Amino acid sequence: MGLAQVLHDFANWSTVCGVPHIANARTKAWRIFWSVVFIGMVSMFIYQLYTMIVKFISFPTNVNTEIFFEEQDFPVVTVCNSNPYKYSVIANDSNLASIVNLMEVYKEAVTKSLASDDAYGFFEIMNTESEGNVSSNEYQIDQLAWEALALEAAQLGEQQLAPALYTFEDLITDCTFSGKKCSAADFTRVYDPIYGACYSFNEDASLRYSTNRAGMKFGLKLLITVSQYTTSLEKDFLPTTKMAGARVSIQPRGIHPALDNNGINVGVGHQTAISLTSTRTRRMKEPYGKCVDNDPTGTSPYKTGYTLETCFYNCRQRETMKQCNCANPRFKKFDSQQWCLPRKTDSANAQTQMQFENQNFPVKCLKSLRGDQSSATPNICPLNDCSCGPPCSEISYLTTASILKFPAEGYFVATNPMQGVAGSCDNQNPTFNKDQRKCRDWYAENALLLQVFFETLKYESYTEVPNYGISAVLNDLGGQAGLWLGFSVISVIEVCALIIMLGLFCVTCGKLKVRPDDGELEEDERIKDVEEVKKELDEADKHDKIMNDDESDDDDDFDDGIRDNNNEKQPKP
């Protein structure tokens, strides 16, 4: 059996549209026509196959949105005083003299009475006022003071600052959850480099506060006393603190509060109601998405769950270490790293002027790393430079805040008549000399009421799923193959059989003989056709032989007759 015969046989019994037409075309023109049609259909199928492959390797996704209505775990609510340290304690503690010195220099810079250069760089900023941008300089002075305060506090450490930090009793006067009293045992103390001692409600894993009803009555209610004035009306805020109130962060359990970025400011003299709507998001990892479960570097000083903010913080800290050779106290650091010094130093081993300024003036170095929107080349852009991906699983809360004046005229902030209870404006409380007016006025300037609750128990769940998986590819492949080539599973098997036959043909160099069995021979239409043709040919030969014999006899009779006639015509002798 030759190669041409193998291909011809395949063309005869193939179910691929167009192939039998090419093999059995009666004329050359029809064979060319069907060949062109078949090549065109194959080309269209290859093009569709290419588009399917391109779409598949792009790994597209869809987002399925589902809405649920069920009992929800209450989030972690972290509250801090906008003033990190008690000024009354700092001013009288010799161990904290560095902060006192910073406050004095800051006050001189603000009042423009600073006459000479200082260790923090305020005088340098003041000298740029000749350019006419006074408001910008005032902003820079405030920012420099905040940076320097964080650096001074980092050098002192939390333990040395402890006397100046606000205790739970100092900050939270009253606490209820769904109408039931809560206490310090329901809070976890968190130290923040900017806001000092903060307190997180429901952070402890043993606490499982949840709510099965929405509304203000079924949430957390806190009476917070920030005490910018003591009850004896002495100032207790640092000169660098611009706002009187609290900083509030709302996040799931096990997540870093990120107060500096994601906190909400709540002012004194108001009741602030924060309603929550929960959203849950599940993202896909590579190759379908870019979500990650851990920091891309593999190591992070943050021991909480991974978030985009903590990844950015870690990245910015690495850049700070690279540029300034020290760590920014706004972000966590590893034990082997050192905090940046708050003041200028006199010596350095720098080889360039920029290195000299960065190493000898860390505050200026930290300021430069924040990036300037007006600069054509900002120092660091976390979105582009940090390679941080979003978390694969995330719970977020949409917050809506509303405020009312607090306390109202004639309202008893608390009814506990015990002496020393800061939350009582009862006329038996001697704290304000039993003067309820003074008590309410003090609360209007030094306290706030915070309520956090779910607006609805309904929440939306967003789940990222593959948009074009293997099953979709197979469906499209079958559809396109059937549309353009009439392909089916049988056709695929036929092509596989042809490939096997061609392989065997090549391996045996064309010597492979295929011997059909008797049944196949009997059923083979081609053999039947040959036998019929043979019979017809035999019949034709037989018929021709008979005709030839008859013609021979007639010729003999004709010859005999001629001879007889000739004999009769001859004369007798």
Would you summarize the structure shown here?
The protein has 573 residues and is an alpha+beta fold.
Q: How far apart, in Å, are the first and last alpha carbons?
A: 79 Å
Number of helices: 19
DSSP strand (E) fraction? 15-25%
Determine the structural class based on helices, strands and strand pairing: alpha+beta
Architecture per CATH nomenclature, i.e. the level-2 architecture of one domain: Sandwich
Number of strands: 15
CATH superfamily of one domain: Acid-sensing ion channels like domains
CA radius of gyration = 47 Å
What's the shape? elongated
What is the CATH topology assignment of one domain? Acid-sensing ion channels like fold
Please, what is the oligomeric state? single chain
The CATH class of one domain, by name, is: Mainly Beta
Largest sheet: 8 strands, mixed
Helix fraction bin: 40-55%
The overall pLDDT average reads 82
Which residues form runs of ≥5 with pLDDT under 50? Answer: 347-356, 417-422
